[in-house]
Write a structure and sequence with these properties.
5 helices, 7 strands, seven-stranded mixed sheet, alpha/beta, 34% helix
Length: 198
C-alpha cells in the first residue's frame, strides 16, 4: 500500500463525535513510551503527523487520521503511565474502552509492545481483555533496531509462551523499527488486504 495522503481529522473523547462516514478504522495503542507516535509517523512517512514527546502519556485524546481518503488510522492514548490524576485517568480509560468496545467501524487494534522488554503484565492483561471483548488485535513489536536479533528472538519466544497460556493461537505478529522503517510495508499490506476483503 502506498500512502499518498494522511490528514488529521479530529481529536476528541466523545464516541459520538468520531467520524460518521463508516470508513474502516485501525487503532494503535500501547504503553506510554512504546514509540507509538514515531511508528505512526514512520507508517505515514510524515514526520509530525502524530506528536512525539520525551514525556510519556502525551496522547490524551482519540485522534483520527484519514489515510488515502479510504480508512482511518486512530491514535489512542497510551496506558500504564501518566502523570495525571486518578479521575482523569479513569475518564481516559472509560473513553478508550468505550471506543474499543462500541465503535462498529473499528476493524483491528494494533497493540504496540517494546521489543526490548520481557512480557509486561499490563500488556498481557490488555490483550486478554481484548480477547474477552472479542476485539480483533495484532501484536506490533517496536524498537527492534535497539537490540540484537538473538535478543529479539528470545523476547518474542517469551511473549509467545505467555500468550499461549491463554490463547489457542497467536494473533498476527509484526516487528518494526521507526528508525529504519522496517516492518512498514508488511503492516500496511496487512491493512490493505483486510480492506479489500471488507
Amino acid at each position: 500500500m502506498k500512502i499518498k495522503e494522511a490528514v488529521f481529522v479530529i481529536s476528541n473523547t466523545d464516541l459520538s463525535k468520531c467520524p460518521q462516514d463508516g470508513k474502516p478504522e485501525y487503532a494503535f495503542i500501547g504503553r506510554s513510551n512504546v514509540g507509538k507516535s514515531s511508528l505512526i509517523n514512520m507508517l505515514t512517512e510524515k514526520k509530525n503527523l502524530a506528536k512525539t514527546s520525551g514525556k510519556p502519556g502525551k496522547t490524551q485524546l482519540i485522534n483520527h487520521f484519514l489515510i488515502n481518503e479510504e480508512w482511518y488510522l486512530v491514535d489512542l492514548p497510551g496506558y500504564g503511565y501518566a502523570k495525571a490524576s486518578k479521575t482523569s485517568r479513569a475518564q481516559w480509560e472509560k473513553f478508550i474502552s468505550d471506543y474499543l468496545t462500541k465503535r462498529k467501524q473499528l476493524i483491528n487494534v494494533f497493540v504496540l509492545l517494546d521489543s526490548r522488554l520481557e512480557p509486561q503484565k499490563i500488556d498481557l492483561e490488555f490483550m486478554n481483555w481484548c480477547g474477552e471483548k472479542e476485539i480483533p488485535f495484532s501484536m506490533v513489536f517496536t524498537k527492534i533496531d535497539k537490540l540484537s536479533s538473538s535478543a529479539l528472538q528470545k523476547n518474542l519466544a517469551k511473549y509467545k509462551k505467555e500468550m499461549l497460556k491463554y490463547w489457542a493461537e497467536l494473533p498476527p505478529v509484526f516487528t518494526t523499527s521507526s528508525t529504519s522503517g522496517f516492518g512498514r510495508e508488511k503492516l500496511l499490506n496487512y491493512i490493505e488486504l483486510i480492506n479489500k476483503n471488507l
